[in-house]
Amino acid sequence: MKTFHNEAEPGQIGSTVLMPGDPLRAKYIAQTYLTDAVCYNRVRGMNGYTGYYKGKKISVQGSGMGIPSMGIYAYELYQNYDVDTIIRIGTAGAIHRDVEVGDLIFAMGCCTNSNFPAQYHLPGTFAPIADFSLLSAAVSQAQGSRIPFRVGNVFSSDVFYEDRKGEKGEWEKMGVLVQEMETLSLYCTAARAGKRALGMLTVGSSIHTDRALTNGERERNLDAMIQCALEIA
């Protein structure tokens, strides 16, 4: 069923969707890794494609930036298009000093400063987590490919430019690995729908150093993450 944000027809979207934040990265993935790729969505410039990877039907859809945008697209994919699995493939900034720029992070759980979970009217604080089968498969794939990775808690923030400098660094004392801006709403939406989700994040920078991925490194490291996601999709 078409929505305000997605013009796909029934059956055009696969049961597994890879979701980068950047719609141009969705286009890159479709053109680089999928065969017979077809664009099913261009609404608001948020590209969506469906094609085949090693014979399996897979879709790739931009999510946009931030918890609300991911929440919209994930909800519609799960509820309107019968998607079973969403794998977020994005970037993050290291909070923990032991996390290296270039590392691949698998988000086992998710902390937040967002009020997004309040909509569920729960009598407490919900702790969003990844689907274990996807997480386990991702770890096995990364180990087999010898990709440097870490598994742990991430911080999904509503804020990119913080008013109180250094505040995000407080999460390090609780072992939180990185900050990003979408996993929270993906995990909440998946839990509410009874569906599967996993966040994969490439570390592009760190609050502890001026080091950041160069353009060449970014391409190589993102490709390693994309291939890992495609293999477990």
From TrEMBL:
This protein's record includes keyword Glycosyltransferase: yes
Catalytic EC class: transferase
GO CC terms, sorted: cytosol
Domain Nucleoside phosphorylase: 17-221
UniProt cross-references to Pfam families, sorted A to Z: PNP_UDP_1
Annotated keywords: Glycosyltransferase, Transferase
EC number, as in UniProt: 2.4.2.3
CDD domains tied to this protein: PNP_EcPNPI-like (cd09006)
GO biological process, alphabetically ordered: uridine catabolic process
PROSITE patterns listed in its UniProt record: PNP_UDP_1 (PS01232)
GO MF annotation, one: uridine phosphorylase activity
Domain of life: Bacteria
Catalysed reaction, written as an equation: uridine + phosphate = alpha-D-ribose 1-phosphate + uracil
Similarity comment: Belongs to the PNP/UDP phosphorylase family.
Protein name: Uridine phosphorylase
